[in-house]
Amino acid sequence: MIAQLRWAIFFWCCFFTTVLYFGLLCMSCLTKRLSVLYCLYGDVMPGLKGSFMKKVVCAVRDVAAETYGQPFFVNAVGAALRSFKDEVNRKADDNMLYQHPEHFSLHQLGTFDDETGILEQSGPRLLIQAGDCFNFDKE
Fold this sequence. Notes:
elongated; single chain; 5 strands; alpha+beta
């Protein structure tokens, strides 16, 4: 009973200290902060292990420049597709994807395991052409 009480007190002290110190208010930063928690308390709180995920590594290909853009990490392919479609359809003078959708495509480059740090390369796999998601009704 005393051991369980000590564990509960230790857990809540660690939890509230971490909440105050790291400010767990931003949901987009939660995974990073959980990894810090795991590094600090992973041996004491084994429930944290396995709460991480593989991120999808994507990049935009510009056929006119013959290059890939800087890779970015998302939780799922659907999130990458949504962001890419939104950017392709964002009307702006400085938006090259909107101005020249025939030159751009979205590719998956691999996965990144944020628990182990292993980056698995699967080679560029075409997800969608910018011209295929261009919304002509918005012109």
